[in-house]
Design a protein that fits this description.
The complex is a heterodimer. Chain A is α/β, with parallel strands linked by helices. Helix content of chain A is 33%, strand content 16%. In chain A, the strands form 5 sheets. In chain A, strands 1, 4, 5, 6, 7, 8, 11, 12 and 15 form a 9-stranded mixed beta sheet that branches. Chain B folds into 3 domains: 146 residues; 120 residues, no CATH class; 156 residues, Ribonuclease Inhibitor (Leucine-rich repeat, LRR (right-handed beta-alpha superhelix), Alpha-Beta Horseshoe), CATH 3.80.10. The chains are: A alpha/beta, B alpha/beta.
Chain lengths: 487, 458
């Protein structure tokens, strides 16, 4: 009797794609070994010595092997931190001239205001270091290391509201559904440590304000093992990772082995690549049961390290504690480590709120860069600090001598980087005297992304994934590498 | 002739009227051919009328064209053929009309010849006119690539020839001459030497023009070449008198070349290129002249995949630097390593450029193995037990740029050894027994070398 069942689970397109690419050659053994599994390029051929990325090897020698991205969610005010504009202080309280704004769109929050009073910063700015970078006194620790930093003062974006802007920054598109930067890195370059995910996310706990959706570290249409894995403070750093009570490691292993046999049958029957992704994830989770507790247990960090990162660093879940974890993850070759710190969205009460934010982030950010430097890790690690857009030069709501707020401003903002492959003590680009528009070397979000990929050894135009009939990439059809900042 | 507003006004009807002879003459010829194919011959008066109208409108077009050309908006050289072929066409059209008044009186050969002549003239003349109005590259600008290639392709004068690699570039031949060729050579060449200057021949260029050399080494102010291209564009001495002026970048190249001795033989490698000039060269010639790291300049065949596998089995994580760079980035993945494992690396000793043995139990003497890796540029030995004695094995690493020794037991004794590593650019000494005096003596010995300690000293 013929028991062969007609396979109805392949779509015609899947079948043609897969058979023509020789994916049938995938063996079960390689599926179970993540290194082996990933060591296949997109055509299904085994690459001799890849680390599992779809590229096999980077397009060109990488300057950066890992990235720590300190994302300041809510958009810090560049005018009160980095972009010094004495003219605004001189014109404090006057209406923003129409010739500056030129009818460009404002958010609904301040578009209806009867006047747009210019709000000069009330914080003191000074030049620091040999590079003479301007910094306000809100960031005393970062001010000390400006000669290690590269500021881009001419960033601009397309989105004017938080979620689209964060999504745009992290995925290259304002609309949800695309893979995030970390996922692209994981997909293209693979892993350097098979016991940990390539892409780890740490979010400061108990911070509120604008919501932060997990799709900012989502894999989009890439296979799901490339999504960012969030590590949390507390008993369960990765949710549902530990064995339930009564299950020991040995029985867990046996259970997984049996599960794999079933999944193998399932995969042979159905042929859905997501089954492979799930199996890889099961195995990763098993290995993480050992590797994650070791990372999260920071009791072996000496006191002088806690002192360097600040008092907060002893409290799990703070930005400072996460900065220490970021370094520990980087030391273990996690490729893309992303911190999120919310609370920068200061539409009102900016002077007080920004002080709190800076106190939470300044010392630890500077400490992280210093710590990486003394360990020699800036040799191949890149640190990025910045938000999703800037803030307006006029006050949202009432302007008083001690209080004001700033609305969203996508036309210009500042971010800074430190580490491998980029120039030190450099400032790129400039805004006009009102801090409203970019007047020199504009850098679009896609340019930033292209540069980031370039530093990782990836040509952003050549890392693509075919989905719904067309090839997608992080920068869509845009983005140029900012060559001026490359060392 | 005297140009009046009224003549230019009439002249501007040229683009309108030119279409009439094209239409009339082609229609007359088509009808004639159609009739010729019929068995029954008939003397069609329309053919005659068509030729007459064609001839008359061709004369009108020629007159308008002459007036338009007189307005001076078109370069004389480009107009020449269009003008005389147009007049020729009018004459041939009149002749055609005269001959074809009665088809019985003209031989078939002559009849066909004159028809063919008119068609060809119409095509050529129309094309030349189109080129004058829209520019010579208009027609083929969007043609498929093979067709563009067939016709020699559009000449892109906006960019200079792009340079591939710094090594083979001669400053005069490949950089300066490219600018002269694009902007100056049309008047200063083998056939034409305005002001007695020939830039096409290196030696003649060096001799200069009627008033002597145009380039004075090291002195842009006294160099006539530089002076002329930087005058006000309204000055009648300004060069080039016609066409595109030199761009900022092109002028910067000339300035840099003259200030550096205006040598006509030297290669780019013989010059130190200041950072602003690196940017100019990158923009103008697409050539990256930033000094390359050693690992980017080594060309080796790809490492054997079986050998890589051997190393992976020995506990090393092996990565190839890039798709076109076969050097290797190797890290030992565990803590406990044996000499035998380390010696395995020697099978690919030329390929290893980044090596991390951090956090392992490596011993001083074992570093002798590492000392053989001739292309090693980055070595991580942090948090190992090595001491000053281990450093003795590293002094022969001629391309080592970065050495991480943080958390090791090295002391001031190692400082003199570190000074012997010729290309060392960064050394990490946090958490070692090196004194701050030792560290500063190392930093002072070599301005290129950055000594990195901890936040609070070493």
């Amino acid at each position: 009797m013929c028991t062969h069942k007609h396979n109805t689970n392949y779509s015609r397109r899947d079948f043609l794609t897969k058979t023509s690419l020789g994916m049938g050659a995938l063996s079960m053994a390689s599926m179970l070994d993540p290194m082996g599994l990933f060591a296949k390029d997109h055509s299904g051929l085994i690459t001799p010595n890849g680390s599992g990325g779809s590229l096999g090897k980077p397009h060109f020698p990488p300057k950066v092997k890992r990235v720590i991205y300190l994302f300041q969610s809510g958009a810090p005010s560049q005018l009160d931190l980095f972009d010094y504009k004495p003219l605004l202080q001189k014109m404090n309280g006057q209406d923003l001239p129409e010739s500056v704004q030129q009818g460009q769109r404002l958010t609904g929050m301040s578009a209806g205001q009867a006047s747009l009073p210019i709000a000069g910063t009330i914080f003191d700015f000074k030049q620091h270091g040999e590079s003479g970078a301007w910094m306000s006194d809100l960031m005393p620790h970062t001010s000390k290391i400006v000669d290690d930093l590269c500021f881009i003062k001419s960033m601009y974006t397309e989105a004017i509201n938080h979620d689209p802007a964060v999504t745009f920054f992290q995925t290259g598109s304002q609309l949800p559904g695309r893979p995030s930067i970390g996922s692209w890195v994981s997909y293209g370059l693979g892993t350097d440590n098979k016991n940990l995910p390539e892409f780890v996310v740490l979010v400061t706990k108990d911070k509120y304000g604008q919501p932060l959706y997990s799709r900012a570290w989502g894999n989009g249409f890439l296979p799901s093992q490339h999504q960012g894995v969030q590590f949390r403070a507390g008993k369960d750093p990765v949710l549902y990772l530990t064995n339930p009570p009564g299950v020991d490691e040995k029985s867990r292993r046996e259970q997984l082995d049996q599960l794999q046999k079933l999944e193998k049958i399932n995969h042979e029957d159905v042929g859905d690549p997501e089954i492979l992704a799930r199996m890889a994830q099961y195995e990763m989770a098993f290995r993480m049961q050992t590797s994650v507790p070791e990372i999260m247990d920071t009791s072996d960090e000496p006191d002088h390290i806690y002192d360097l990162y600040g008092e907060d660093s002893r409290k799990p879940g703070t930005f400072a504690a996460n900065c220490i974890l970021a370094r520990r993850l980087a030391e273990r070759d996690v490729k893309f480590i992303q911190l999120y710190h919310q609370g920068w969205d200061q539409h009102g009460n900016l002077p007080n709120a920004i002080k709190v934010q800076c106190k939470e982030t300044d010392q630890a950010s500077a400490a992280l860069i210093t710590d990486l430097k003394q360990r020699g890790m800036l040799e191949d690690t890149l640190v990025i600090w910045g938000g999703e857009f800037g803030r307006t030069n006029y006050s949202q709501g009432q302007l008083t001598p001690t209080n004001f707020g700033r609305d969203h401003h996508p036309k210009c903002f500042t971010l800074f980087m430190a580490g491998a492959g980029i120039k030190k003590g450099m400032t790129l680009g400039a805004t006009d005297d009102f801090g409203y528009n970019v007047v020199q070397r504009p850098v679009h979000v896609h340019d930033f992304q292209a540069t980031l990929m370039h530093l990782l050894g990836v040509d952003h135009e050549r890392l693509t994934f075919k989905f719904q009939g067309r090839r997608y990439r992080l920068t869509d059809v845009h983005g140029e590498v900012v060559k001026e900042i490359l060392a | 002739m005297i140009v009046l507003d009224i003549t230019t006004f009439i002249g501007r009807f040229h683009p309108l009227i030119v279409h009439l002879p094209i239409g009339f003459l082609l229609l007359a010829i088509l009808i004639e051919w159609y009739q010729g194919s019929k068995a029954k011959k008939k003397n069609n008066s329309f053919i005659r009328v068509g030729w007459l109208l064609g001839a008359l409108s061709a004369i009108a077009a020629a007159i308008c064209g002459w007036l338009l050309a007189a307005s001076g908006n078109y370069p004389e050289a480009d107009i020449f053929w269009h003008r005389w072929l147009g007049i020729g066409l009018a004459i041939v059209a009149i002749a055609g009309w005269w001959l074809k008044r009665d088809s019985s009186k003209i031989s078939k050969l002559a009849n066909n010849a004159i028809t063919l002549l008119v068609v060809s003239l119409l095509l050529i003349e129309g094309h030349l006119g189109g080129n004058l109005t829209h520019g010579a590259d208009y027609l083929l600008a969007y043609a498929p690539k093979p067709i563009q290639k067939l016709f020699g392709g559009p000449e892109d004068k906006s960019t200079l020839p792009q340079l591939e690699s710094k090594d083979s570039v001669l400053v005069y031949d490949h950089m300066v001459y490219a600018i002269l060729e694009a902007k100056c050579l049309s008047c200063h060449n083998d056939n034409e030497q305005r002001g007695g200057l020939n830039m096409q021949q290196k030696t003649l260029f060096a001799e200069g023009g009627e008033n002597g050399p145009v380039v004075l080494a090291g002195n842009t102010v006294e160099s006539e070449l530089f002076r002329r291209v930087t005058l006000s564009q309204k000055n009648e001495k300004y060069m080039p008198p016609k066409g595109e002026p030199l761009t900022y970048d092109e002028i910067k190249i000339l300035e840099w070349w003259i200030n550096n001795g205006a040598d006509i033989e030297k290669s780019l490698n013989e010059h130190d290129i200041p950072v602003p000039m690196q940017q100019v060269i990158l923009r103008l010639y697409g050539l990256d002249t930033q000094p390359k790291a050693w690992y980017e300049s080594v060309n080796l065949p790809p490492a054997d995949s079986l050998q890589i596998e051997t190393l992976e089995k020995a506990g090393f994580r092996v990565k190839t630097l890039g798709q076109e760079n076969s050097l290797l980035d190797i890290k030992y993945s565990g803590k406990n390593i044996t000499l035998a494992q380390l010696q395995q690396l020697s099978i690919l000793k030329e390929h290893i450029t980044w090596l991390s043995l951090a956090n392992t139990n490596i011993e001083n003497d074992w570093l002798a193995v590492v000392g053989e890796f001739s292309n090693l540029t980055r070595l991580q030995l942090e948090k190992t037990n090595i001491t000053d004695q281990g450093i003795t094995h590293l002094t022969q690493l001629g391309h080592l740029e970065s050495l991480n020794l943080y958390g090791t037991n090295i002391t001031d004794t190692a400082i003199d050894l570190l000074k012997d590593i010729p290309e060392l650019k960064r050394v990490y000494l946090w958490g070692t027994k090196v004194s701050s005096e030792g560290a500063s003596s190392l930093a002072e010995s070599n301005t290129e070398l950055e000594v990195i300690g901890g936040i609070s000293g070493l």
